[in-house]
Design brief:
Length: 420
C-alpha cells in the first residue's frame, strides 16, 4: 500500500469574469499607429487571462515602429505592439482553476490541523507554484510547439515554431487590456516586487540568459559589457548580483557611461577615435589594447577578462571584445547588428575563445531574474526613467526612439500603464 498522502481534491470555485473592453495599441505601418478594440481572448484549459498593468518598450518595438521591420523580419499586417509586461490574473482555464482549487483545499486542511497557521499562511506555502486569481505575474511572451527536438531538449528558445508577442508572424502584442498565455509562461511575483518591476523581468531575463546561462559567470570573474542601453545595463547588474569582481562597461555615449558607472559597472571605457582611413579590424585591435591598458587589465591570467557580453551588435565592438577577452574566455552575442561581419578568427581559434549566441531566455532564466530582484541583488528602479498612460503610448515610443525626453533627460526604459 502506498504511503503517499492523498491530497484533497477541490472543485473550481465559480468566479464570474466581468470583462471590460479590450483596447489595443496597433502598428499599421512604420510610424503609423492607432488604437483598436480587440476581441477578448477565449481560454483553453491550460491557459490564463492576464489584465495587463505595465508594459515596457523594447528596442525591437521601436525598430518595428520606426522602420516597419526588425532585422530581416518585416511587419506583415497590423500588429499590436509590446511584449515586456506584467499584470493581474483575472481568469483561469479549467485545468488551471482545478489546480488552484486543490491548492486552496490543501491550505485549508493545513490551517485546520494547525491552528497556529492561518489559511493565508498555509496558502503561501502550499500554493507557491500554483496560480490563483488576483496574482501579480510577469509574462514570458513566447509560445513554442513543445514537441520539437529543441523544445524537448530544453532549448525551447530556439524552437522554429516559436510564436512571439509583437514579432511577425505574431499572436499580437501585450499593449492591450487582456492577454492570454499558457499557465506555465506566467510567473508569480513576490509581494515585494511591484508590477513595473514585473514588466522588467523580460529584458532582465535576456541579461540573465546571456550572463548566467550562456556565459556561465562565476563569482570573482571579470566581465566586459559592450552597450550601455537597457540590456547592457541589465547585464552589468546581473554580473554584479552574481558576484563579478570587475564589470567594465563600454559605450560611445558619455552620458550612458556615467549612468553605468553609478549603476553597476566598476569601470567604464569610452573608445578612442579611429585614425583617418584606418581599417576597422586594425582599429578594433588598437582600441581593445587601449581599453585593457586604460583599465589596468592584463591580457591573460588573474584579473583578465573572462566573459564578454556584446549588447551593441556593432561589428567593431564584437571585434574589440574578441581581442580583449582572455585566452579560453567566452564571448556571448546578444545584440543585433549587421547580418554578416568580419571577426579575428585566427585569434579565436588559437586562443580557444568560445563564441555563443544569446537568444532571448530559456529554462530557469525568469525564476533567477525574479529571485535577484526579490533578494535585492539587482536594483531596477534607476532604469525606470519614464512612465506613460496608455493613451500616451505614442509619446512613449517617440521619446524612446529619440533617447531623450522633451526636457533633455536621458531615456533608459519607458513603461506604459495598462488601459484605465
Amino acid at each position: 500500500m502506498s504511503s503517499q498522502a492523498v491530497l484533497p481534491r477541490g472543485k473550481p470555485e465559480p468566479v464570474e469574469f466581468k470583462a471590460k473592453d479590450n483596447p489595443a495599441f496597433i502598428l499599421y505601418d512604420k510610424l503609423k499607429t492607432g488604437y483598436e478594440e480587440q476581441p477578448i481572448p477565449e481560454l483553453g484549459p491550460d491557459e490564463v487571462l492576464i489584465e495587463i498593468k505595465k508594459t515596457g518598450i523594447c528596442g525591437s518595438d521601436v525598430h518595428f515602429y520606426n522602420t516597419g521591420a526588425m532585422g530581416l523580419v518585416a511587419l506583415q499586417e497590423p500588429m499590436c505592439l509590446g511584449h515586456e509586461s506584467a499584470g493581474i490574473l483575472v481568469q483561469l482555464g479549467s485545468n488551471v482553476a482545478r489546480q488552484a482549487a486543490e491548492a486552496r483545499a490543501v491550505a485549508q486542511k493545513l490551517s485546520e490541523n494547525d491552528h497556529q497557521v492561518d489559511t493565508g499562511q498555509a496558502q503561501a506555502v502550499v500554493g507557491q507554484g500554483t496560480l490563483q486569481l488576483g496574482d501579480k505575474v510577469a509574462l514570458e511572451p513566447g509560445v513554442t510547439c513543445r514537441m520539437c527536438t529543441d523544445c524537448r531538449g530544453g532549448c525551447y528558445q530556439i524552437c522554429e515554431h516559436m510564436v512571439f508577442a509583437a514579432y511577425p508572424p505574431s499572436r499580437g502584442g501585450t499593449l492591450q487590456r487582456y492577454y492570454k498565455l499558457p499557465a506555465d509562461l506566467v510567473y508569480k511575483l513576490p509581494p515585494s516586487v511591484a508590477l513595473e518591476y514585473g514588466a522588467m523581468m523580460e529584458p532582465l531575463s535576456v541579461a540573465v540568459h546571456a550572463v548566467a546561462n550562456k556565459g556561465g559567470l562565476r563569482t570573482g570573474q571579470n566581465v566586459l559589457v559592450f552597450g550601455a542601453g537597457p540590456v547592457g545595463l541589465l547585464a552589468m547588474a546581473v554580473a554584479k548580483g552574481l558576484g563579478a569582481a570587475r564589470i567594465v562597461g563600454v559605450d560611445i555615449n558619455e552620458e550612458r557611461l556615467k549612468f553605468a558607472k553609478g549603476y553597476a559597472a566598476t569601470d567604464v571605457y569610452l573608445p578612442i577615435k579611429p585614425k583617418a582611413d584606418e581599417p576597422r579590424a586594425a582599429y578594433s585591435l588598437r582600441a581593445a589594447a587601449d581599453l585593457l591598458l586604460t583599465c589596468g587589465i592584463p591580457t591573460r591570467g588573474p584579473g583578465s577578462i573572462d566573459l564578454v557580453i556584446d549588447a551593441s551588435g556593432a561589428e567593431v565592438c564584437i571585434q574589440m571584445g574578441l581581442n580583449a577577452v582572455r585566452p579560453g574566455g567566452t564571448h556571448v552575442q546578444t545584440g543585433f547588428g549587421p547580418p554578416d561581419i568580419q571577426i579575428p578568427m585566427f585569434r579565436v581559434t588559437t586562443n580557444e575563445i568560445t563564441i555563443k549566441g544569446g537568444w532571448r531566455y530559456g529554462n530557469g532564466d525568469y525564476p533567477l531574474a525574479i529571485d535577484l530582484v526579490n533578494r535585492g541583488l539587482v536594483n531596477l528602479d534607476p532604469l525606470l526613467t519614464h512612465t506613460f498612460k496608455f493613451k500616451d503610448a505614442l509619446e512613449a515610443f517617440e521619446i524612446t526612439k529619440a533617447g531623450k525626453d522633451r526636457d533633455g533627460k536621458m531615456v533608459i526604459k519607458c513603461v506604459i500603464d495598462g488601459p484605465e
